[in-house]
Amino acid sequence: MANVLIPTPLRKFTKGAEEVSVSGANIGELLTNLETNFPGIRARICDDKGKVRRFVNVFVEGEDIRFLDNLETAVKDADEVSIIPAIAGG
Questions:
Q1: How many whole angstroms separate alpha carbon 25 and alpha carbon 17?
Q2: Are 5 and 81 within 8 A, CB to CB?
Q3: Which of 30, 78, 80, 88 is the most exposed place for a label (fewest CB within 10 A)?
Q4: Residue 90 has pLDDT above 90, yes or no
């Protein structure tokens, strides 16, 4: 299972857990299984078409999935997956 780092705004779905273990051969499967374990979380990460929202970044072992295979990016056991919401300021 991959270790998924949960950002503070999404921890209400994981009962406060900063990190959860989730299985999946790729990011798409991992997000589906994340939703199964923590209902409601996927809607905060993905849009209505199932794509990762523009203001959310997902990294596998420090690599942005947008520069890899997006939702098809492979995930191995013990990989670290980070979900990072964009921060705006001014």
A1: 22
A2: yes
A3: 88
A4: no
Residue 53, token pair as written in the block: 């929202």
- pTM (2 d.p.): 0.92
Q: Give the DSSP per-residue string, 42-86.
A: HHHHB-TTSSBPTTEEEEETTEEGGGTTGGG-B--TT-EEEEEE-
Mean pLDDT of the chain: 96
Lay out the sheet containing 80-85: strands in order across: 19-22, 2-5, 80-85, 56-60, 63-64
Which of helix, strand or coil describes residue 84?
strand
25 burial type by CB count under 10 A (0-12 exposed, 13-18 middle, 19+ buried): exposed
77 phi and psi angles, rounded to 5 deg: -55, 140
Amino acid type, 80: E
90 burial type by CB count under 10 A (0-12 exposed, 13-18 middle, 19+ buried) = exposed
